[in-house]
Input
Amino acid sequence: MSSKAYVSLLLIGTELTNGTIQDTHGRYIASRLTELGFTVTKILLASDDLSTTDDLRNLAACSDIVIVSGGLGPTSDDITREMLAALSGGSLDFKQDVWDDIAARFDVRKGQSNKRQAFVPEHFSTIQNTKGTAPGLKGTVGNTLLYALPGPPHEMRRMFDRAVVPDLVQSFHVETEEFLEATCFLLSESLLEDACGKFPRSGVSWGTRAGEGMIHLYLRGGMQQEREAFLGFLQEYFGKERLKNGSVDLPAYTVALFKDLEYTLSSAESCTGGLFSKLVTDIPGSSEVFPGGVVSYSAGTKAVYLHLDRSEIETHGVVSGETAAAMAQSVRVLSGSDIGISFTGIAGPGGGSTEIPVGTVWIGIAGHDGEIRTFPFRFKGSRDRIRRKAVAAGFLLLEIWVTEKKRLDSYRKWQYI
Amino acid sequence: MSSKAYVSLLLIGTELTNGTIQDTHGRYIASRLTELGFTVTKILLASDDLSTTDDLRNLAACSDIVIVSGGLGPTSDDITREMLAALSGGSLDFKQDVWDDIAARFDVRKGQSNKRQAFVPEHFSTIQNTKGTAPGLKGTVGNTLLYALPGPPHEMRRMFDRAVVPDLVQSFHVETEEFLEATCFLLSESLLEDACGKFPRSGVSWGTRAGEGMIHLYLRGGMQQEREAFLGFLQEYFGKERLKNGSVDLPAYTVALFKDLEYTLSSAESCTGGLFSKLVTDIPGSSEVFPGGVVSYSAGTKAVYLHLDRSEIETHGVVSGETAAAMAQSVRVLSGSDIGISFTGIAGPGGGSTEIPVGTVWIGIAGHDGEIRTFPFRFKGSRDRIRRKAVAAGFLLLEIWVTEKKRLDSYRKWQYI
Output
């Protein structure tokens, strides 16, 4: 009975440590226990033949609960039963009733090796496995509660959900920690860290996690109002479009916004090469919003697809505000959509110059009101990162364009990210 | 210098132990090291705030090599540097040269918290991080070699591949098992498994690993000739374009092939929504091959972008061989490229019908010799998977088109994948 309960997991299987299969048990168990207020501190993946009682002892020493999965099979390298017996200092005994139960439910005549599965460590009880032959085990060593579950996913998950979770919820009265999550775009962890440090001292602590093209920010501790004030401070500091409340997928967010407003959108992409339209059309139902776009990678296709004047493109340069404006306006008119967006820049690694270095991207937006604006950026990183950042900037600009156009100048801060 | 070398991994991140994200580093590192003949015995996932020097000590005690990932960020809960210093019993010192290097490559003036990343444990050396601010670390404690790598996937992978692997291969003379790797497209693991079982008994064993849009096949044991005969059998069985020798990236492979042959390529995408052009333009230098493409998601944009007759599209249907042919030919002519490819289909989840169910995709190819062919497919899976399979089929068709056109009918086997 404590307000915090620490859990460790030991997942046994050589195929996990040699990379043959991807472990998914760890996340399955950890996310469920975290929801319930438990704190999972360690997840150890160990090979069949090299996992030892010491591993189990180390985990038990720092945990209120240890959950083992795997190593309960019928073969001689399945040694979880032996490890539990060694840890508890007890014997390992054949149980006729357990064997009768396995034999009644499975045709194990050919598999006398299954008899190994009817051995139970002293002081441990069994948990019935309705999906397979290996019963689960439950026992206490010192102050630590131990569960051993079978390794096959459907057996493990069923036993965890049906037997372990209800048992833990009844035994431990944990307090679930409240937190606030935000999703951050065109920001770095160190910029966030520095800004968080500027918020007046409070009971709120922060943590970040870098995702693909975004950073998750978690604010924990304090009262809900304090966490909200903290997020409000950061939104004020960076501009609210860059820090969105909750777990946000930017393309889905933008498509939903356009759907709500009944706006349509088309794109003319040069350096992003189709990434923008790929991300938009990843979203089921995006066809309501997005009639299409062009990927005009060469000056020639810019001219032909978009009916632009090639000599004019060459006068201003392919990577220029003028070209970005012409592309956005042209694709909007051709597609008959409300808003057109364009991307032209140098994603690298080649193609940069002193005047227009790698990372330079012009974004153009043209609206049905006839307004056309262009936005120059300088992004850092690899070809892939520059392309992703350009597209993220496009989504944020579109959001501001359709919701609060006077704030468009916010883009000036999204530089050198 | 031993014939066996044991490796442990310590992956630090609270988001790994609370189930927010799925760890993929463990499998990435473990499968590569296993290929190279190392034995990965333990993979420990630990939370930021509860991972301790003891964890590192326990892993070091049973390993020749420990690789740590994560905890090298600029924030105060990033404690890998401190743990390494504590384990080695040395000090943790600010290194001006490391800081100068970080500051020269990144605009970190605003991010003074990055200074933490210029602290190096005594007796450790740094490994340059070309993708991010945190340098890696390398040092020896007792008989154990330790590496610390940054946590973000692209930083970790690059440093592991470019710095750690060559270093380990040079330092440890492990007995590598010889094997043959192939990359398989438009195949499932179970189809591969069944076909492998049909090969006459040999000393060769097989294993598969599912990647993003591909499956890696490993043939191990036996003589090299036997492994080659095994792969030859599978290539004969499935068509050689679906099983490529080595580790192959399909878009890069196709772009290189087109470059060699000096062919240019353009695309007209409907259901794939820009995924094809995105993948092509991911490849640096693809502009030599790819002048551009159009994403014509609606019938209207198909007509306008591609100068097609809208009533004709509606007569044949948007998802039809006729429309695919017209799209491919039109984009080829508009772009002035040698070959045009088109994709039109139903990626789902909505939009399917009894006649044209979700998963139906027509691919069209038009060549500069005037030939136009269309290829109907039926793919299984989610929206994302259907789109990826369609694009993979497009790449394979293009390869056959430019190398051995008479084999184009192979596509008939790439169904219901």
